[in-house]
Structures are given as structure tokens and as C-alpha cells.
Amino acid sequence: MDTLSLHRQGFALGLISTLLLLASCTAGTPASDKQVPNGSPTLQISIDAKDFMPTDTIEVAIDSSRTLTNLLRSCKEMQFSLKKYEGLGHLVTGINGLENEEKSGHYWQCCLDGTYSDRGVDEIIPAQGMMVSWYYRAYGESPCKKIGEE
User: Fold this and answer.
1) How does pLDDT run across 36-59, given as a tens digit for each residue?
2) What is residue 101's DSSP assignment?
3) How confident is the model over 19-33, as pLDDT tens digits?
4) Which CATH class is domain 3-138?
5) How far apart are CA 77 and CA 31, in angstroms?
6) Rounded to an integer, what distance in angstroms lies between the CA atom of residue 70 and that of residue 145?
7) What DSSP line would sit under 6-58, residue for residue?
């Protein structure tokens, strides 16, 4: 697999993961202000698109039987663009109208607990305490660790 294909996979997987998690939350609500039912498992979602849109972090109540894709598709407050890639599953290609841009090389990249995601959002089952971060950056510019990197 060539470098461009790996880049597209990483970016797509990250984007999809983030979008799915955001679907079940209220956009623009700081994690500390989000009302989550007592005892509900939660995870944190953050979006960082540099100068393209405001940075945000939210806390989301999760249902372990749902994939990240299900959460993203059900989100009323945020719009996620998803595209299915053969062998990769669904990847996020846009959040709230900010789409991946091949010409400039900017893509939504997903990190799970600080490490690049290697799966499509339809393969990610949200877990208690998970941190899902979406970065809109040129390939390789996000602060995520590579898979296997300490």
C-alpha cells in the first residue's frame, strides 16, 4: 500500500470515529457543562481544526451496543459526512461542512486515547473514559502517536 493510501486511511478512520461520537452529543457544550445521566458511561470528544472552526471538547453518554458510526449518524446538533471505503469501512470526510481537501492535503484525522485510529468508525465501540480526538490537518501534522509508538 502506498503512502497516500495509508494517509487517506488514517485520516478517514479518525474522521469517522470522531463524527460517530459527536452524533450523540450537543455541539459547543463544554465537557464540564454537559448534562450526562448519573452513572452513565461517558467518553470525551474533542475537535481541533486550527483556524478553520472553533476547538471544542464535549462529554458524551455512550451505549456500549452502538458503534461510533451509529452515534454520528444520530447526531442532531452536528453534521458528519461519512464515506465507505472498501476494506476500511466508513470514514469521516467532513464535520459541520468542513470537508477533507485533497488539493491542500487537509483531512480529518482521528485519534483514540492519543493514538491514530487504524479502524473505520463502524468498527469502533465506544468505551467508558475513551478520548476521541479529531484533527483537521495536513497528513502527519496531528499530535497523535503512531500505532505501536510509546
Assistant:
1) 556 778 877 788 898 899 988 877
2) B
3) 333 333 433 334 434
4) mainly beta
5) 15
6) 26
7) HHHHHHHHHHHHHHHHHTTS-TT--TTT----TT--EEEEEEE-TTSS--EEE
Q: Copy the grid coordinates of residue 88.
A: 476500511
The set of residues, in sequence order, having a beta carbon less than 8 Å from that of 33 and lying 6+ positions away, is none
Report the C-alpha gap between 27 and 95 in whole angstroms. Answer: 11
pTM of the model: 0.70
Domain assignments of the chain as residue spans, ordered by start: 3-138
Closest CA to 74 of 63, 83, 84, 86: 63
Q: Taking the C-alpha atoms of 84, 85, 90 and 94 in order, what is their torsion angle to the nearest 10 degrees? A: -80
Measured distance CA(100)–CA(106) in Å, rounded: 6
Q: Nine-digit cell at 79?
A: 453534521
Surface-to-core class of residue 97, CB atoms within 10 Å of its CB (0-12 exposed, 13-18 middle, 19+ buried): exposed
- For the chain, give the number of residues: 150
Average pLDDT of the chain is: 74
Would you state the cell numbers that stand for residue 84, as one nine-digit string?
A: 465507505
